[in-house]
User: Fold this.
Amino acid sequence: MTNGIIGRFYKQREPEKREHPEAIELSLAGAVPLAPARQSPSGEAPVSVEEAPLGPDMVSERVNLHRYLLDRINLGILDTLDNEEIATEIRPLVKDYIRRNNFPLNAKEINDLIRDITDEMLGLGPIEPLLTDDTIADILINGHDSVYVERGGRLESTAVRFKDEDHLLRVINKIVSAVGRRVDESTPMVDARLKDGSRVNVAIRPISVDGPLVSIRKFTRKPLTMERLVEYGAMANAMRVLLSAAVRGKVSMVISGGTGSGKTTLLNALSSQISPKERLITIEDAAELQLQQPHVGRLETRPPTLDGRNEIRQRELLKNALRMRPDRIIVGEVRGDEAFDMLQAMNTGHEGSMTTIHANTPRDAVGRLEQMVGMAGMPMSQLSIRSQISSAITIIVQVQRLSDGSRKIVSISEITGMEGEVVQMQEIMKFKKTGTDDDGRIRGEFRATGIRPRFIEEFAELGIEIPAMIFDPGKPLQSGPLEP
Assistant:
């Protein structure tokens, strides 16, 4: 080896004593070579997810190789090297080990092995190739020997395996410690995020009976645009025109939907319509929004310490955000008493603020908001709470994950005020299911109801034009690839 890193990279060998810092032990065993759509540092061909896992003998030898490398590598220098440098340095060591033990591996298998070890050193081991595969939306780990992914709206099993439960726990701790969080028997559940903003949820024993459960919701490196969502059939072009105008016109809105329905994806896309001149403050449990504006302040909650102190909740962050001179406040998801402060912000000069909520219909979203505001403990009557909701929020966008795995906007509704003690709404656009095709894909069409929203009456003064034809109920609204 002649690249000049040898002295830093290799340990000075001690004849009688070897010490391996346990805090940074590299658990390589079980990191199966199965990189889907993954390029090696040298540009070699990707390895398929469907590759068979290593047999017990090879897993055992991977452990021995791991120990062999630890004896020879200066772990303290790893953070200063990139993947290519590490791969270059360990290649002769791996080849030497294979030669000494007479393993029948060809050049491609050796390169796969080196690539997996490099991934483990700097990344998250067996799941690293899944994280770099842009066709995967979710990674679901059910214990050390069962890993699923969602691709194209459908779940599929992979050959990814961890060596054992301890190996999986080491990877989990690497994830949560990177964002200053912890997971142990006293705190067996945690929300975290990866460096790219992907959302991570972890549950371990004792609440997870059969071993650690990890759910990773991936986000694309480049957030989807409104135009791309139209091309993918997630909304009609008329919906894009209406919602884009509503954001530019500073109409406050709530995106409602179930788990995995695409709420955050839509929120990211909508945020692209906000003027770069505005100051935005985002508030999230785990930061994942990918706003592209230059003037963005990102706030994130903090869990309590071991003694139950120093927790910072979304409500405290919302109160603080109001002192930061925001033009708009964007809450990743409202789920508790912070709903009261969110409505207050929308009602006191922060028009155009947005949030998401877990609910199955627009009417359910209003009901959930009412319950959450009540959790704030403020002396407000039910009528007063509903009045706050009707004056603060103008649009509720309902998104849904359909049975075929596709995600669509199924309703856009406008809150028009109060009638008696009831919050009044009118549906502007919707998705109407018409059946399924031979492959089980949902068939349907986007339709306007014929109702023109009241809020567009003010848009002319702002120079925002909305074509009247998008509200025509006589024909389906266009979706799919946009016409030039």
Observations:
- Confidence is low (pLDDT under 50) at residues 1-9, 12-56.
- The longest helix spans residues 83-101.
- The CA atoms of residues 281 and 392 lie 18 Å apart.
- The chain is about 30% helix and 20% strand.
